[in-house]
Amino acid sequence: MLRAKQTRYPVFFLTCGTDITGQVPDVRTVSLETAVPFSRMEQLQGIVTNSLPLFTKPKWIRHIRNDQLHLWTWGNHNTGHDKVQFQKMHGVSGVISDNVGDLTKVDKKLRPRDAGASMS
């Protein structure tokens, strides 16, 4: 039903992946165990989860990818280069971070802007 309503853009299921507050009433949003089957059932393109549970149980990354779902992560751990590299190495599709500039500098992938380039 969700995907049928949105055919133009990919639809992902947003979850915490773990109960970080103790006050979330919808079990699908606090557990990868329920988020994955729900996403498959609704034929969504993937899951966006807090990265924290993936560090303690990296097997979830392979499990989600084996189910043909994309996996994106968010959270405080996504500001550390080593944590981002861990996710990349295990097959996470995308990492949401507030620290993109610093992360790319560490990888030496950030190229300085051409001094003569305009901001158009």
UniProtKB/TrEMBL annotation:
Q: Is Hydrolase one of the keywords?
A: yes
The protein's superkingdom reads Eukaryota
- Protease as a keyword? no
Recorded hits in InterPro entries, A to Z, give:
GDPD, GP_PDE_dom, PLC-like_Pdiesterase_TIM-brl
Q: Which SUPFAM superfamilies match?
A: PLC-like phosphodiesterases (SSF51695)
Q: Which UniProt keywords apply?
A: Hydrolase
Q: Which GO terms describe its molecular function?
A: phosphoric diester hydrolase activity
Tell me the GO BP annotations in alphabetical order: glycerophospholipid catabolic process
| Domain GP-PDE: residue ranges | 1-107
Entry's PANTHER family?
GLYCEROPHOSPHOCHOLINE PHOSPHODIESTERASE GPCPD1, GLYCEROPHOSPHORYL DIESTER PHOSPHODIESTERASE
Listed name of the protein:
GP-PDE domain-containing protein
Record organism: Saprolegnia parasitica (strain CBS 223.65)
